[in-house]
Design goal:
Blueprint lengths: L1 H30 L3 H7 L2 H26 L1 H26 L2 H5 L2 H8 L8 E8 L2 E6 L10 E8 L2 E8 L3 H4 L1 H4 L12
Antiparallel strand pairs: 1-2, 2-3, 3-4
Helix pairs in contact: 1-2, 3-4
Length: 189
């Protein structure tokens, strides 16, 4: 009975440590520019599909918000979003969410060139269910950097990243999302 309990504790310890080992392998793949290992850790088709849904949903919500303010424009915007959104968003995400794009990301390249790890980026990582593990990361060098939440799922016998939640667009590109300066429309004297 004692041996069985000991075996159970060892297996439980290995199970609990496995997603952290996967994060360590992810860091090594990024730092060694290893696209093959990155493909084994990140389920790129699943990440792309989840991002497409998230971005398309955000675009649709924005067009519906516009529809409340200006009904005609909102209806046109919603129709265009529904018609063109999937192809435009899908094509953009397909080209941006690849092993090559991740490995050529300026932050990844900088960490690789300076031979630094990504430990400082990790804010939180823990199980959210027996087969789901959540990771929150943030650039420690930028106080206002957005928090990126990634989800790993146990697929068969290995943990893989299947989802990356994007922060609001305005946190990624704040200058583009800032309101336009008001124009003075008073007649000149």
């Amino acid at each position: 009975m004692r041996r069985l309990f000991l075996l159970f504790l060892i297996l439980l310890g290995l199970y609990l440590a496995y997603p952290y080992w996967t994060l360590y392998r992810l860091q090594n793949a990024l730092l060694s520019n290893n696209a093959e290992t990155l493909k084994k850790i990140v389920d790129f088709p699943a990440v792309r599909a989840n991002m497409e849904k998230e971005v398309q949903g955000g675009l649709l919500r924005k067009s519906q918000e516009l529809g409340k303010k200006a009904p005609v424009l909102g209806s046109i915007g919603e129709a265009l979003t529904r018609a063109l959104g999937p192809s435009v968003v899908g094509g953009s995400i397909d080209s941006l969410v690849t092993p090559e794009a991740v490995l050529s990301n300026p932050t990844v390249v900088e960490q690789r060139e300076e031979d630094k790890g990504f430990e400082g980026f990790l804010k939180w990582a823990f199980f959210t269910s027996p087969t789901t593990f959540e990771i929150q990361s943030q650039n420690p060098d930028k106080a206002d950097a957005p928090v990126i939440t990634s989800t790993m799922e146990l697929q068969g016998f290995r943990w893989r990243i299947t989802k990356v939640d994007l922060p609001p667009l305005k946190t990624l590109v704040p200058d583009m999302m800032a309101p336009a300066p008001e124009m003075d429309t008073a007649p000149a004297d």
